[in-house]
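task queued by scheduler; priority normal; single chain, no ligands, no partner chains; default sampling; output format set to structure tokens
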Amino acid sequence: MYLIHPFTSFKLYKKRGEFLSICLSCRGLHVSFKLAETSAKAVRGVSFDIEDKTTLGVVGESGCGKSLTALSIMRLVPVPGYIKHGDIYFDNCNLLKLPENEIRKIRGKKISMIFQDPMTSLNPVYTCGQQVLEVIEQHHLKTPIEKKEYIENLLSEVGIADPGRTYTAYPHQLSGGMRQRVMIAMALACSPKLLIADEPTTALDVTVQARILDLLHDLQQKKSMSMMLITHNLGLVGDIANKIMVMYAGEVVEFASTEDLFNNPLHPYTTSLLKTIPHLDKKKCQLKVIPGEVPTIRNIPQGCPFHPRCEYAKQKCKTEIPKQYTPDSGHSVRCFLYE
């Protein structure tokens, strides 16, 4: 039984008679964008917890609000976007209430983020070593060894075979996989408590994707940190995430342990996503697709946002917004099928 208070920063909750600690707790997050005549809601009432030393997988199609939720944790929502209301608790404080000078002390040091595209995230006019060094100096870390040696050890730790050459190389001189490893090294430079990986395998070949994900999983275990892994591919998080949060049109439509979600998906959207994963033993079967498109923030339909694409939609789904139901312990879903 869960004993999480929905609006306070309790760090402990009870599960099966044991108390486990919470690394980060998000409650009722709403993010909107100012438009010419009105404002559009991009993230609507998102709530979740990330336990200490575990991985939360966040999945959904592009435009579902995954990256915006992560940027809200970092307080980096791009203008004209803004956090309308909500609470995000970390280290006994509400990140959304902190002044900018205080959030800078946390950003990069206690909470780090790996962004989607390493080519645009890395500065092309600075060497990779200089960019990792900047992260260290930003937080005034004193290392017992010379900084260059520390950075080379860090580059080696993320699987770069020649850290000395990479230290002096510019981003354009490296492959996509190597640039992503440099981004991971930058994120880990200050030994964060929480690592957010936003589509860390975008634009990488399949074999490189597997290596990067294995590397992140190994580092998460080795450094005993929590991780939030964002992806549009459910198949990528199956072996890494402890729990999975499925998002659609800015809402959390299902939340469960990885095992429960794969063995017993409840929401029609989750079921559809699982059907789109190709299987080697079904080579001659036609690949499933989800009809329609994700609604934009300007045209989110009335009622359940998934009803135009849902084969189980009824009249009630078109007019009323479903609440969050918990048919099984620890497994929640936002769908009238479980009312």
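post-processing summary
- The chain has a mean pLDDT of 88.
- The radius of gyration is 21 Å.
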